What we know:
Elements: E1 8-12, H1 19-30, E2 35-40, H2 47-61, E3 67-71, H3 74-80, E4 84-88, H4 90-100, E5 105-109, H5 114-123, E6 127-130, H6 151-164, E7 169-173, H7 179-185, E8 189-192, H8 201-212
Parallel strand pairs: 1-2, 1-8, 2-3, 3-4, 4-5, 5-6, 6-7, 7-8
Helix pairs in contact: 1-2, 1-8, 2-3, 4-5, 7-8
Amino acid sequence: MTPQPRQRIYLITPPVGDPQSLARALAAALDAGDVAAVLLRLEDSDERTLINRAKAIAAIVQPRDIALLIDGRPDIAIRAGADGAHLSGIAALTAALGALKPDRIAGAGGLRSRHDAMLAAEAGADYVMFGEPDRQGGQGNPGNQGNRPAFDTVLERLTWWAELFQLPCVGYAENLDEVGPLAQAGADFVALGDWIWRDAPAAAVAAAIDRLAQPV
């Protein structure tokens, strides 16, 4: 019998302009296994349009008892009734905390050093994320094209965090083969980004959950 993994999946959407175009694939992915949270990335638009997009995705996510977070827009998260927001960088996190807490989740990414991660925890983040790429060649907005720290560095940082801190940490998997090592390094959640949406999202989520349960 395959053991039940301790870690859970944190699903990151592609940038969403038309929620209906993602609806079927998203629902199938969420039903493929134990997904803890969905991070919604929104294409740029006016505030009312962004709120309506977020509400459309919320109608798929939240009835399944899965948390919906909005990437980088705590104002939209609040107005759309989402469960929280994911903020990139200490400045963005601290600016959003007053509006989000205590009722909503405030997640922290874009953490370029151990010191940044500790600052995020001290400020009141509900989780920290390691390993997501950005356009500038460091850690930043999850799912963006670009470089990121070497995978060994991500694993080292996750191991350090898991050994010393109780605050949950998320490890970003750039492909299926990274899922197991991230879990073994101590990630509480493994984030799946753009790669799962390219072909069969439900199958990709199921495969990732299977990797969580397997020894490296």
